[in-house]
Specification:
Length: 532
């Protein structure tokens, strides 16, 4: 390797190296000076678990910490919230009441979302231990005070949204169960009214009185048999009296002593009535029967005592035979009425007993539906009580909550750009481009510049070589051209960058836009971090 030869070639191409070095250095230094400072202020938040043990009283808001943070973040980054915050805090130096064009508003919202950074760390379990969930909230701004102000405003919005969301969910849960309790209470009342109306309509054919009605049916059947036997005995007695009267005439009249038999029978019936009233109700059919018989015998006895009452239609006194027939006819008439009453009662009992199975099924269906609604009502009341407890817990902020660990403060130094890095990058880029340009020019030059090239190209060995000497005027003119071009680039590039940044578009935005178009968004040290 002929290092001296290559060094001389580098010196011959030094102007190209210096040109690219000046270009890279000018660009790097200008960007380092022109690019605005970006301040970053950060606050730290902690998602705390419930303050009251869950086995004593639990909140009705069961949102997981990660889900809750995601919901809050999406609500904070909505279009209306960001535009309102930009107007209130005058982030862009505009009048809050000034109307924006839709495209300007879209750019504002996108820029605000790019500046806001919300990072969640921790959560879950590690080696059986539950890790706390931490949030980092930061905002990038051109001034330190604005960065801290906006970050604290974001923290305020997060805390407010956390309280609002949890209390709103707890209140909605409580309102739901209040409505559910009211609905089930009304349904219970309606079903209870249906059951009551059914029972009132079918009170004589309900299953709970079936055994009593069957007992009444047996008693009335027995009573019917007794009435029929008594009726048969009275009919037989009357027939015998009529046959005796027809066979023997007036001589077969009942003796006078027969009249006192009614009085004795009346006394026996009165004694029996008194004895029965001591153990039976006055409404008992047996009591009613005794009273009716006593009333009939009392009429007969009164007629026996008062001759005027024992006279016929023609005013003639009745004979003992006629009185006896009248008594028997009265008893038969009474027994017929009793027989009809007992028969009607039996018919009613039979009809109610036949209707009882159907009524029992209907009533069981109604009561089962009522019981099901009652179970739902009891559950709703219990859930309502838990919802009330959960609402109180959230109102007092004793449930899961987000608290501030570290408030955002005004940063002392800007976060970016890294001016030394940008300037060094510009100089390093210029050096690399300059060396690359020199290497490329020499690589493409196929001319003969030394004896070794002549030997390699033509296969001859030269005796001597004569160099080309430039005149003094040529050397001066060449140097003026080189230094003029270098001066133009040295002054023109910073001036052009300053003009673009001032009159066309800020350089940081321009770089970010160009990087986004070629798919390299985020490569620049000025590129804002996207929210997580």
């Amino acid at each position: 390797m002929d290092f001296r030869f290559y060094f001389m070639l580098f010196l011959r191409r030094l102007h190209w190296f210096l040109l690219f070095l000046i270009i890279g250095s000018a660009v790097g230094v200008t960007l380092a000076k022109v690019l605005p400072a970006v301040y970053l202020s950060e606050a730290r938040l902690l998602v705390e678990s419930e303050q009251i043990p869950g086995d004593l009283a639990s909140s009705t808001v069961r949102t997981q910490a990660s889900e809750q943070i995601e919901i809050i973040q999406q609500r904070i980054l909505t279009r209306d919230t960001l535009v309102d915050m930009a107007n209130r805090l005058d982030i862009y130096g505009e009048d809050p009441g000034q109307a924006r064009q839709p495209e300007d508003t879209d750019k504002l919202v996108e820029d605000m979302r790019n500046r806001i950074n919300i990072v969640t760390t921790g959560g879950g379990t590690q080696r059986g231990l539950v890790r706390a969930t931490l949030m980092g909230v930061s905002f990038e701004a051109p001034s330190a005070q604005l960065a801290a102000t906006v970050t604290n405003e974001l923290v305020t919005l997060i805390l407010r949204e956390d309280v609002s969301m949890r209390t709103r969910v707890a209140r909605q849960t409580l309102e739901f169960f209040e409505q559910e309790v009211g609905r089930l209470d009304k349904e219970l009342a309606d079903r209870g009214a249906v059951i009551l109306a059914f029972k009132e309509e079918n009170q004589e054919a309900l299953p709970d009185s079936l055994e009593f009605r069957r007992t009444q049916q047996a008693a009335n059947q027995e009573r019917l048999l007794q009435v029929e036997r008594q009726e048969a005995a009275l009919i037989d007695r009357r027939n015998r009296m009529v046959r005796l009267h027809e066979a023997f005439g007036p001589e077969a009249n009942v003796p006078e002593v027969a009249r006192t038999a009614e009085q004795a029978q009346l006394r026996e019936l009165e004694n029996e009535l008194a004895a029965q009233l001591s153990i039976l109700s006055p409404e008992n059919p047996r009591i009613k029967l005794l009273e009716a018989r006593i009333e009939a015998l009392r009429t007969v006895v009164d007629a026996q005592i008062d001759p005027a009452a024992a006279t016929g239609g023609d005013g003639q006194p009745l004979t003992a035979y006629e009185i006896e027939l009248a008594e028997i006819d009265g008893e038969l008439e009474f027994l017929a009425d009793q027989k009809k009453l007992v028969t009607d009662t039996l018919a009613d009992l039979r009809s109610s007993i036949e209707e009882t199975p159907g009524n029992s099924i209907t009533l069981e269906t109604l009561e089962r539906d009522y019981a099901n609604v009652r179970v739902q009502y009891d559950q709703a009341v219990a859930n309502k009580a838990r919802a009330e407890t959960g609402d109180i817990i959230e109102a007092l902020r004793q449930g899961q909550r987000i608290s501030i660990v570290e408030q955002a403060v005004v940063p002392a130094e800007p976060e970016k750009p890294n001016r030394m890095l940008i300037a060094a990058g510009g100089v390093s880029g210029g050096i690399l481009l300059g060396l690359g340009m020199v290497f490329l020019l020499e690589l493409t030059n196929k001319g003969i510049r030394r004896p070794a090239d002549l030997t390699n190209a033509l296969g001859i060995t030269p005796f001597a070589t004569l160099p080309y000497y430039r005149t003094r005027a040529e050397r001066v003119r060449r140097r003026l051209i080189i230094f003029g071009i270098l001066g133009v680039f040295l002054i023109g590039i910073p001036a052009a960058l300053w003009a673009v940044d001032t009159y066309i578009m800020p350089l940081d935005e321009l770089m970010d836009t160009l990087a986004g178009q070629v798919g390299l968004a985020g490569w620049s040290p000025l590129a804002p971090r996207s929210p997580v």
